[in-house]
Amino acid sequence: MDRSLFLARLLGPTFVAIALGMLINLGMYERMIAEALHLGILFYLSGLLSLLAGLAIVNLHNRWQMDWRAIITVLGWLMTIGGIFRIVLPQIAIGVGSTIYSGRTSTIVVALITGALGAFLSFKGYMRRA
What we know:
Elements: H1 3-24, H2 26-38, H3 40-60, H4 69-88, H5 90-100, H6 104-127
Helix pairs in contact: 1-2, 1-6, 2-3, 3-4, 4-5
């Protein structure tokens, strides 16, 4: 199977599940995000996992074609950079995270973007003929 399709089939449903979880359990996710921003070990672990996942994607899929596959590459690089940022500069990263997740509206917007991206990748991964 093509790596792009494989990664789209992994990331798409995962993003959709995350988005649905965020929208259905909004208050709980807001509390979890706030806790993660204040508990150093959770923030560090999220950076470590993001770095590992991002590096795996970048090493398997560093394609810069001008089509939907570039989204997977960009996600891999964003995850890598975000993970490094959280590990190396945690105070700044916590400040950025606190700004992004400062209210209910921003959490909903993040969930909707994540869901749309997940739906798009799921469609490309499962509905596209290889």
